[in-house]
Amino acid sequence: MRIKQLYVAAGQWSVSAVLICSAFASSVASADNSVDLGLEEGMRKAVFIVVDGIPADVLERVHTPNLDLISNAGGYTRAFVGGAIGTDTESPTVSAVGYQSLLTGTWANKHNVWDNEVRHPDYRYWDIFRIAKAFDQKLQTAVFSTWEYNRTRLLGDTLHAAGGRKLDHYVDGMEYDLARFPHDPDSLYIRAIDEHVATSAAEYISDKGPDLSWVYFQYTDDIGHFFGDSRQQDDALQLTDAWVGEIWKVIQQRQKLLAEDWLIIVTTDHGRSRQTGKDHGGHSQRERTTWISTNSRHLNGRFSQTPGIVDIVPSIVNHLDLQLPELIRSQLDGQAFIDRF
Question: Residues 112-134: pLDDT tens digits?
């Protein structure tokens, strides 16, 4: 990838401690979606994709032609997770913690997800889907995920405290369908589920064009835990890149045929340990260093300053042209890397 090569050549390796964030509810916001945010109608749409557990150095080394195409259309940058070390925002580099930081634009000291058990999320900090539905109930939303907890616990879809029903369509729960996806010690069933997620997302986006979608792939992280830094991990990344390419292809088709303005953001939730690449959860530079690939042509200076995972939601908000009241905006931990236009 040319952009990846230019990025590495520029020597931008440090992880910034600057915090940024999304749009969500203040601590005094009501439990339902009663804040009137108003929405201008338009053809802008957004999808964000999480490729689990791929460090920036791996992505930059492995040939990923579809992510290259996305980055060449907009930009690629290294990013960070885990908050600011030594402050209240310091957060474990664990999957569910990273997802919730992305979804709410807050670090763990606010959203209260500290591990993959997701025991007591603080739904006072709104996720991007709650924001979208509060903005306009007519906005169509969708989630395609290999892990059901993303919908049921992190988003808390249908829960009153989390804002009620926020998703118009979802594909998940396949990990419990042992008839279709029998479990095996090599996580081949997770690979099969990821493939089903990719196909389902591409077909639904092509047919329905939801306004806001989230796609989550798990297989790369499973392989990382099994083999660490390895050919197997590289192969898993390239496989997932092909699935991302399916989604990117239908987005391009819709843009051409329907004059829609699509934003795609692809990222990861954490890096991996320096020694073997099999572990994560701590605060080594490699565990904290992630990446963002996007097609946006409205990137601002923040994008080149090592943005945080919490910057993604406010960037989506800007692309979709959502107007946030001060009640919600005051809770943001950072700034968008996409300008309004």
Answer: 999 999 999 999 999 999 999 99
DSSP conformational letter for 310: G
How many whole angstroms separate alpha carbon 337 and alpha carbon 307?
8
The pTM of the full predicted model, rounded to 2 decimals, is 0.89
**DSSP letter at 139?**
S
Which domain covers residue 314, as residue numbers?
A: 2-329
> Which residues, 6 or more positions from 272, have their beta carbon under 8 angstroms from its beta carbon?
53, 55, 58, 224, 228, 229, 278, 279, 280, 286, 287
Q: Is residue 334 part of a domain?
A: no
In a domain, 339, yes or no: no
Is there a domain that residue 341 lies in? no
Q: What is the pLDDT of residue 4?
A: 57
In the chain, the number of structural domains is 1
pLDDT computed for residue 325 by the predictor: 77
Question: Tokens standing for 161?
Answer: 């405290």
Please provide the distance, in angstroms rounded to a whole number, between the alpha carbons at the two ends of the chain: 28
Spatial CB neighbours of 22, under 8 Å, sequence gap ≥ 6: 102, 103, 104, 105, 106, 128, 131, 310, 311, 312, 313, 314, 316, 317, 332
- Provide the pLDDT for residue 326: 81
Which of the residues in the chain have pLDDT under 50? 2, 5-42
Query: Which residue from 21, 29, 216, 20 is spatially nearest to 123, judged by alpha carbons?
Result: 29
Residue 138: strand, helix, or coil:
coil
Distance CA 118, CA 107 (A): 14
pLDDT digits (tens, 9 = 90+) for 177-236: 999 999 999 999 999 999 999 999 999 999 999 999 999 999 999 999 999 999 999 999
CATH number of residue 167's parent domain: 3.40.720.10
The reply to whether 124 falls in a domain is yes
Rounded Cα distance, 228 and 341, in Å: 42
